[in-house]
Specification:
Layout: E1 28-33, H1 38-57, H2 66-72, E2 79-86, E3 106-112, H3 114-123, E4 136-144, E5 147-150, H4 158-170, E6 174-175, H5 181-186, H6 189-193, H7 197-204, E7 211-219, E8 225-233, E9 236-244, H8 247-266, E10 275-282, H9 287-298, E11 303-312, E12 315-322, H10 327-335, E13 339-341, E14 384-388
Parallel strand pairs: 4-6, 4-7, 10-14
Antiparallel strand pairs: 1-3, 2-3, 4-5, 7-8, 8-9, 10-12, 11-12, 13-14
Helix pairs in contact: 4-8
Length: 390
C-alpha cells in the first residue's frame, strides 16, 4: 500500500490565481490537547509560541536562540487570549496525543500579543517578518514506482496536503500550477526534473507569482527520500537539498527553506531612529482604488504612519514613516505586484544651470537672495514613483 496517492488525473478549468491561504493570523496558533488541565495547557502554550515565533521571524531555528529559549518556559505571559473547542470526529480518527497514545479531545486556540512578540525578537537582534508575503508558485516533480509526475493544484493526494499544511504553518501564501493544456504545452516533467528552469519561468508568468519554487522528490538509498529545491525571487536564487526517512518532512523542506530564504529578503531588523519617504502613486482613478492603496500600504511590515500630501487627477503623493529603515518597504513595493515602479523617473532639476553654493553646503538659487533651507532626511530627498497595478 502506497503512503502517497500523489497525482489525480482531473484538471481544473478555473481562474489562474489561487488563494493566499493564511487561515491563521501571524500571531495565532491551534494545538490539539488531551484535556483542559493547567499542565497540558502550559505545554501547549509553549508549543504554540514556538510556532508563532518561527512564523513571525521567518527563521526556522529561532527557538535555538538563547534569548528566545530563555522565555519559552513562561509562554503564558505572551498569550492574549485562548479558548477550547471540542474536536469533531467525522470519519477520521483524531490524532493521538503524546501522553499514553490517547486521543486528543480538544482544540486549543491561542492568540499571542503582537507587540510583545516583536519586542522579544527585536531585543534578541532578530528580524520581524510582516503579513505581506510573496505568493509562491510551486512546481514539484515526484518520482514514485518508476514514474515521474508533476503535482497539480487539484491533486487529492498527500503531497499537496503536506505542502499546504507547511505553508499554513509558516504563513507563506502558495499555489500550485493548474497543469491544464496551457501548462502541459509549456512545461514537461523533464523540464522540472532536469532543472531546465527557463521554460518553467516562462510558463509561470500567467500566475503572476511573487516567488517561484521548483523541486524534485525521489526515493533514495536506505529507505530515505531526497528533495532538491530552487527558489527564484527577483534577481535572487537560492538552492538547498534535504534527505531523510520521513517523506513528509523532506517534502515540507521546500516550504521551510522558501520561508527561511524569503525572510532574508523581506524580514525587517530593528534600526534605531525613524525614517520616512515621499512616494508618488499614479493610476489611482477612483476612491475604491485609493482606499485599496492605503489599506495595502498600512499592512506593510515597518510602516508606522501614512500622510496624504496631495491628490491631483489620478496621482496621489504620500509620505510614509517607518519604524526603522525604508529599504525593506521599498523593496517590498517593487516586488509584490500591487504597485509597479515607474522606470526612468527622476525629479527634474530646478534649473539647467549650475546652482551656486551658499557656502554652508546649501544651494542658492540664481539671482535670488539665499533663504534658509530646511535640512531634510536623506529619504525625503528623492521622490519614488509607482503605478497602481490594475
Amino acid at each position: 500500500m502506497r503512503i502517497f496517492h500523489l497525482i489525480s488525473p482531473v484538471f481544473l478549468l478555473l481562474a489562474l490565481s489561487g488563494p493566499a491561504f493564511a487561515a491563521l493570523s501571524l500571531y495565532e496558533a491551534e494545538v490539539e490537547v488531551l484535556d483542559q488541565t493547567r499542565a497540558v495547557r502550559l505545554k501547549a502554550m509553549r508549543q504554540a509560541l514556538e510556532e508563532v515565533l518561527v512564523r513571525v521571524s521567518g527563521y526556522s531555528l529561532v527557538v535555538t536562540e538563547p534569548a528566545v529559549t530563555a522565555v519559552l518556559g513562561n509562554a503564558g505571559r505572551y498569550v492574549q487570549q485562548y479558548h477550547y473547542r471540542p474536536l469533531e470526529r467525522q470519519g477520521e480518527a483524531v490524532a493521538a496525543a503524546e501522553e499514553g497514545g490517547e486521543q486528543a479531545q480538544f482544540q486549543l486556540w491561542l492568540r499571542f500579543d503582537p507587540a510583545a512578540i516583536k519586542q522579544l525578537l527585536q531585543g534578541a537582534g532578530l528580524a520581524v517578518w510582516g503579513g505581506e508575503r510573496p505568493r509562491t508558485l510551486i512546481w514539484l516533480a515526484i518520482e514514485e514506482g518508476g514514474k515521474r509526475q508533476l503535482v497539480a493544484a487539484n491533486d487529492d493526494g498527500a503531497a499537496r496536503e503536506v505542502l499546504e499544511q507547511a505553508a499554513r504553518r509558516r504563513a507563506l501564501p502558495m499555489l500550485l500550477p493548474l497543469l491544464d493544456l496551457t501548462d502541459r504545452k509549456a512545461v514537461r516533467v523533464g523540464d522540472v526534473w532536469g532543472e531546465f528552469h527557463d521554460s518553467v519561468k516562462d510558463a509561470s508568468a500567467r500566475y503572476q507569482p511573487g516567488a517561484l519554487l521548483i523541486g524534485r522528490l525521489h526515493p533514495a538509498s536506505g529507505g530515505n527520500w531526497r528533495a532538491r529545491w530552487t527558489l527564484y525571487q527577483g534577481d535572487e536564487t537560492f538552492r538547498w537539498e534535504r534527505k531523510g526517512a520521513d517523506v513528509q518532512a523532506v517534502l515540507a523542506s521546500g516550504i521551510e527553506g522558501a520561508a527561511d530564504n524569503l525572510s532574508l529578503l523581506y524580514a525587517e531588523r530593528y534600526e534605531s531612529g525613524a525614517a520616512s519617504a515621499r512616494l508618488r502613486f499614479e493610476g489611482v482613478t477612483s476612491f475604491s482604488e485609493f482606499q485599496r492603496l492605503l489599506d495595502y500600504l498600512g499592512k506593510l511590515n515597518g510602516v508606522a504612519a501614512i500622510q496624504v500630501l496631495t491628490i491631483e487627477d489620478d496621482v496621489v503623493e504620500l509620505q510614509l514613516a517607518s519604524e526603522g529603515g525604508m529599504d525593506l518597504i521599498l523593496k517590498t513595493l517593487e516586488h509584490q505586484g500591487v504597485v509597479a515602479p515607474v522606470e526612468g523617473y527622476a525629479e527634474p532639476p530646478e534649473s539647467e544651470e549650475q546652482l551656486p553654493s551658499s557656502g554652508d553646503g546649501r544651494v542658492q538659487p540664481v539671482n535670488q537672495v539665499a533663504q534658509p533651507v530646511p535640512v531634510l532626511p536623506n529619504e525625503l530627498l528623492n521622490l519614488r514613483v509607482f503605478r497602481l497595478v490594475k
